[in-house]
Amino acid sequence: MADYTAAQKSITATYDSDIEIITPELQKIQFSSSGQLKMTRPDKLRVRRTGGYTDVDLVYDGKTVSLYGNNAKAYVQADAPGTVEQLVEAIQAKTGAAMPGTDLLLSNSFDVLTSDVIEGHHIGQGVIDGVECEHLAFRGHDTDWQIWIQTGPQPIPRKYVITSKTVAGAPQYTLRIKDWKTDAIAAADTFSFKPPEGATKVGLDSDVMIEFDEVPAGTIAGAKK
Q1: Are the beta carbons of 14 and 179 closer than 8 angstroms?
Q2: pTM of the prediction?
Q3: How far apart are CA 107 and CA 86, in angstroms?
Q4: Alpha helices of 98-171 — where are they, by DSSP H?
């Protein structure tokens, strides 16, 4: 899977994600969102995420990253020359956004995924959205994770579950990937950001960055893998 995904120059997909939080009363609450991903290696990325507390569009053209929050009707921009992998690392470092699932797209995804693994097992077979998959489970020091990989000549990830063991109640993050395609992205403006009419440009400390997360501000979630 890691070799196959790293070899794809262009990737488009849709996804559904669920992230759990644990309340002070130890009740487990789940927040859900859906989105679309478009990526061309090494330096083009567009991600849309829509949920109950988030509606954002991230666009990266290799030089500038733009993040538009539909709820806030505002956007932030920053110079970020480099690659998609450097962008993900910078966002995680500067904003604290976990961005779980991005490790599946990295060119060195195998090294990143297994860096904390102390034990792994092939559980068996499973079916995700009607597609037969191989089910694997891994244990780490802080997180455990499972992955379902499509069988056959296209070993793509179909489902990814991260369990945070350092948070009481062991909340989980679940990612389901659909409509995976590796055809070249034809539209020339796919990775160009054009502010919607009436949108306001704001600073990096604005609510637009808060919208980038999948849960309301103030909640404590796991899935920091």
Answers
A1: yes
A2: 0.89
A3: 11
A4: 109-114
Q: Exposure of 27 by Cβ count < 10 A (0-12 exposed, 13-18 middle, 19+ buried)?
A: exposed
d(CA 162, CA 20): 10
Pairing of strands 28-40, 10-22: antiparallel
Which residue, 51, 83, 73, 14, is CA-closest to 213? 51
List Cβ neighbours of 197 (8 Å cut-off, separation of 6 or more).
none
* DSSP letter string, 50-118: EESS-EEEEEE-SSEEEEEETTTTEEEEEE--S-HHHHHHHHHHHH----TTGGGTSTTHHHHHHTTEE
Bridge-based pairing state of the strands 74-79 and 200-201: parallel
The answer to whether the Cα torsion of 7, 10, 14, 16 is positive or negative is positive
- What are the extents of the domains in the chain? 2-211
CA dist 215 and 81 (Å) reads: 29
What would the pLDDT profile of 130-172 be if each residue is shown by its tens digit?
999 999 999 999 999 999 999 999 999 999 999 999 998 999 9
Q: Which CATH number fits domain 2-211: 3.40.50.1370, 2.50.20.10, 3.90.1150.10, 3.40.50.1980?
A: 2.50.20.10
Opening angle at CA 84, ends 35 and 140, nearest 5: 75
3-class DSSP assignment, residue 163: strand
